[in-house]
Design goal:
Layout: H1 10-82
Length: about 90
């Protein structure tokens, strides 16, 4: 295949196959690298999101505890106002 007009030999075809296979292997390796980088990025995002959710859940829990305490105190005040002669428990 020197001048492009001669018929291809088996060796020419084998060389061409080898070059295509090499190029294909390079593409596969590049795709694996991209996949790895994407997975790392998503993993990092998932970790930070999970941390934020845990912090939010903890804040919600603490707020509910405080609200429960306020409600209990308010109930005691209401009992004293509505039933002034009865001892509180």
């Amino acid at each position: 295949m020197e001048n492009g007009n001669e018929p291809a030999t088996k060796a020419d075809l084998a060389q061409l196959r080898s070059e295509f296979q090499h190029g294909f292997d390079d593409v596969k390796e590049t795709l694996r690298d991209v996949q790895t980088e994407l997975l790392r990025a998503f993993y990092s995002f998932a970790q930070s999101t999970e941390t934020k959710l845990k912090e939010s859940e903890l804040a919600d829990f603490m707020l509910r505890q405080r609200l429960t305490a306020v409600e209990a105190r308010l109930l005691e005040v209401e009992k004293r106002l509505n039933f002034p002669n009865q001892p509180s428990q």
